[in-house]
Design brief:
disordered C terminus; 4-stranded parallel β-sheet; 5-stranded parallel β-sheet; globular; Rossmann fold; alpha/beta
Length: about 375
């Protein structure tokens, strides 16, 4: 890759769209899930859905790390943040994620010490600089961000920082895909695999999805032609009667990923028996917790965490969006009661959320005129 323009060439996009259309079986509908929120934003920022045949539908999946955090975990984090002497360090996109009792931003307004950091190492530095306070890092994300948390834990242990801990909410990508495929309410033909996650774990972990469920997977980059080529690869497999894993993003992703990153995750974290996902319920072995060797840095052991399960607001349909069951504009509060300024659900809050993508790139009126989806 020399220039980004190479991956935004309109003529090449049109040519790819023609090839996709040629592969489509007349009368058949194709439903392909783009797992990652980054792909969703590329699709609607660049209008890729208008290049595809009407029979090819792209639906959002559970690949936005902020979106899948359930309200109960947000409440737990806010409870820690309100503890006297605690500084809660988080990424900026967590500030407005709603719990049942408000958000981090609300807690900050009422006196809690909540600070935005750009990496977990920034949170560790806060602990070193302010030894009189307990600094807790709100760790979220898929395997993409887990290595940075893992390396920070190793650094904290090496330095012996006593006032630093991690509230771990890292999740893994394969279990929710299985949960979606095992459910009876969504029919999918294939997946566009997440590029950032795959840069860490590689392509190999998706092989059971292709083999056991007969669903093609194409790991993709984040430019318009990346996504269109991934759609082409999935449709081509379906036309040829294959279900395999293909790597469109070979300029970044290798088949076995980043062994060092996987190694540091395994050295500091282990799978949780159960973890609640927004919209997907409890999925066994789908998230990570700190290993016993790092228990002194585990905020869930250091603080009294309520751990109460909280149901999503009835008006919010984020869960159905994350399962690919509905499109954001089909949600009953999308663009009306729920907007980026006053979000009800996480899909509208996060910079990677599907609802935010639809709203910010002009798909608001689709709710009122579904026919515009293909105009």
């Amino acid at each position: 890759m020399r220039y980004v323009d190479e991956f935004r060439d309109r003529d090449k996009a049109v040519a790819l769209a023609v090839r996709i259309a040629e592969l489509c079986t007349p009368g058949r509908h194709y439903k392909i899930m783009e797992i990652c929120g980054g792909h969703t934003h590329t699709i609607y920022k660049h209008g890729l859905e208008h290049h595809l045949p009407p029979t090819v539908e792209l639906v959002h999946g559970p690949g936005c790390p902020v979106c899948v955090i359930p309200m109960g975990r947000v409440d737990d984090a806010i409870s820690i943040a309100r503890t006297p002497g605690v500084t809660m360090a988080c990424f900026g996109d967590m500030l407005r994620v709603p719990g049942s009792q408000g958000s981090f931003l609300d807690a900050k307004a009422s006196g809690a010490d909540v600070r935005v950091v750009y990496s977990p190492l920034d949170a560790l530095q806060l602990a070193v600089d302010e030894p009189g306070r307990q600094v807790v890092f709100m760790a979220i994300g898929f395997e993409t961000t887990a290595p940075s948390t893992a390396l920070t834990l190793l650094r904290a242990k090496a330095l012996g920082v006593p006032n630093f801990s991690v509230f771990c909410n890292h999740v893994t990508i394969i279990p929710p895909l299985r949960a979606i495929l095992d459910a009876a309410d969504v029919e999918l033909d294939g997946f566009i695999g997440p590029g950032h996650v795959s840069a860490v774990i590689g392509c190999r972990p998706y092989e059971p999805i292709a083999r056991e469920y007969a669903k093609p997977v194409a790991v993709a980059g984040f430019e318009p032609l990346d996504v269109l080529q991934a759609v082409y690869l999935v449709v081509r497999q379906l036309a040829e009667g294959r279900a395999e894993v293909e790597n469109q993003y070979s300029r970044v992703v290798t088949w076995d990923g980043n062994p060092r990153a996987v190694e540091v995750i395994a050295a500091t974290m282990e799978p949780r028996p159960h973890f609640e996902w927004r919209g997907l319920g409890s999925i066994p072995w789908s998230a990570l917790s700190l290993r016993p060797e790092f228990a002194t840095f585990d905020a869930e052991k250091r603080f009294d965490v309520p751990g109460v399960r909280v149901a999503d607001p009835r008006a919010c349909q984020c869960g159905e969006v994350l399962r690919g069951r509905i499109r954001p504009w089909e949600c009953r509060v999308f663009g009306t009661a729920c907007t980026p300024e006053k979000p009800i659900g996480t899909c509208m809050v996060s910079s990677e959320g599907a609802c935010a993508a639809y709203y910010n790139f002009g798909r608001v009126n689709l709710k009122r005129s579904p026919a515009k989806a293909r105009t």
